[in-house]
Write a structure and sequence with these properties.
CATH topology of the largest domain: Butyryl-CoA Dehydrogenase, subunit A, domain 3
Radius of gyration: 21 Å
Oligomer: single chain
Strand order of the largest sheet: 1-4-5-8
Largest sheet: 4 strands, mixed
Number of domains: 3
Bound molecules: acetoacetyl-coenzyme A
CATH architecture of the largest domain: Up-down Bundle
Structural class: alpha+beta
Distance between the termini: 22 Å
Order of helices and strands: HHHHHHEEEEEEEEHEEHHHH
CATH superfamily of the largest domain: Butyryl-CoA Dehydrogenase, subunit A, domain 3
Length: 386
């Protein structure tokens, strides 16, 4: 059995670094809807964009447990920076490593690993959200090029002042009866003519993490831009999302821990009726429940990560980790606001931001309802599909 305490020292190092280079900027990132270049560069300097990328391409080659701890600790400092690293590691570096041709890996991995290029994962469309296979964006082969037309929405890591490359699902088989088996994954640099960012979404939280529409208008990419097999792009994206759901779980644990830490400190230092709040049994119980839930969520996340590292199936466990951790994150953030009273509701105090940020974890990379469908289907079939 994995002894997670063996990662304690690693966690301390990451936490100290995240507290130094990310946390001091968290409030401004939220207020200004922007991650400044200085933070991007400091994060890149740590190698966190390429945490799981091979060393040969400038990555740190961490296992998924270490990577999850990093996403957790960075999210504890700032959800916006945490989600950016979650997408880069799980939805970009991981599928590129798993499915990319040697030429694609050689060409794209160094930029992703160094953080010089941000990767976005363009699956969602106006009519393809939870029903992710209902892709309407098309790619038609014209000689040696794919011509892409269509629209994506709610796409993270679409930071306009940073070089970007998008992994997009496109329908390559025009036969509607092909369903999800007619969808491919294409690699599209954001600078390609015909690739245009649309509206930047005006989100409740995670303000520094850019989320945008993308429009493809006769956007041409070379024929060899297919990632993985032709018409197998839906499955590739599902496999990437399995990994992504571990990191979104890690993000929720980090945000939940941030809220818990603040609640404990408040219980120790705030005096009412002549004594610290934490003397009250009502507060002790609340904090005990919050801490137990965060710990349970953390172990669910690490357990799914360890299964991935061991080469075991982990679709179900990743969905459980995300579903549970996201719910715990929201509940713990809400309880922490309650313990703080008016202060928790004040925008100048970090809890209100944490509460808004963690809500995304119940929605992005598959809603909680989708996670329960994934878990239920895999259990009730009595055979593991993945
Ligand atoms: N691994 C490998 N293959 C998988 C798989 C997995 N985890 N999940 C499904 N598949 C395969 C199936 O085996 C099946 O293949 P075969 O036909 O060969 O057997 C094929 O994919 C189709 O599977 P389903 O029939 O289960 O597909 P479905 O249409 O019923 O959809 C779903 C299943 C679970 C609901 C899926 O659509 C889903 O996960 N939806 C949520 C999408 C999502 O998470 N969206 C978030 C996008 S990312 C984001 O938030 C934005 C961002 O910027 C990061």
């Amino acid at each position: 059995m994995l002894d997670y305490s063996s990662y304690d020292e690693f966690r301390e190092e990451i936490r100290a670094k995240a507290d130094e280079i990310v946390a001091p900027h968290a409030a401004a990132i939220d207020a200004e809807d922007h991650i400044p270049d200085g933070v991007m560069k400091a994060v890149a300097q740590e190698g966190w964009f390429g945490a799981t990328a091979p060393e040969a391409y400038g990555g740190l080659a961490w296992d998924t447990v270490r990577y999850s701890i990093m996403v957790e600790e960075v999210s504890r400092a700032s959800g916006s920076v945490g989600v950016m690293l979650a997408v880069q590691g799980s939805l970009i570096v991981y599928p590129l490593q798993k499915y990319g041709t040697p030429e694609q890996v050689e060409h794209y991995m160094p930029g992703f690993a160094s953080g010089e290029v941000l990767g976005s994962f363009a699956l969602t469309e106006p009519g393809a959200g939870s029903d992710a296979g209902n892709t309407k964006t098309t790619a038609v082969l014209d000689g040696e090029e794919w011509v892409i037309n269509g629209q994506k929405c709610f796409i993270t890591n679409t930071k306009r002042d940073w070089p970007g490359i998008c992994f997009a699902t496109v329908r390559t088989d025009p036969d509607p009866s092909a369903g999800v088996r007619g969808v491919s994954s294409l690699v599209v640099p954001a600078e390609t003519p015909g690739f245009n960012y649309g509206r930047k979404e005006n989100k409740m939280g995670l303000h520094g993490s850019d989320t945008s529409e993308i429009f493809f208008e006769d956007c041409r990419v070379p024929k060899d831009s297919v990632l993985g097999e032709l018409n197998e792009g839906f499955k590739l994206f599902m496999v990437a999302l399995d990994a992504g759901r571990i990191s979104i779980g890690a993000m929720a644990v980090g945000l939940g821990q941030a809220a818990l830490d603040l609640a404990i400190k408040h219980a120790e230092t705030r005096h009412q009726f002549g004594k610290p709040l934490g003397v009250q049994q009502a507060i002790q119980w609340k904090i005990a429940e919050m801490a137990t839930k965060v710990r349970a969520a953390r172990f669910l996340v690490y357990s799914a990560a360890a299964r991935k590292d061991a080469g075991l199936p982990y679709t179900t466990e990743a969905a459980m980790a995300k579903y549970y951790a996201a719910e715990v994150g929201r509940l713990v953030a809400s309880d922490a606001v309650q313990i703080h009273g008016g202060l928790g509701y004040d925008k100048s105090y970090p809890l209100e931001r944490i509460y808004r940020d963690v809500k995304l974890d119940e929605i992005g990379e598959g809603t909680s309802e989708i996670q329960k469908i994934v878990i239920g289907r895999n259990l009730i079939n009595l055979k593991r599909k993945t």
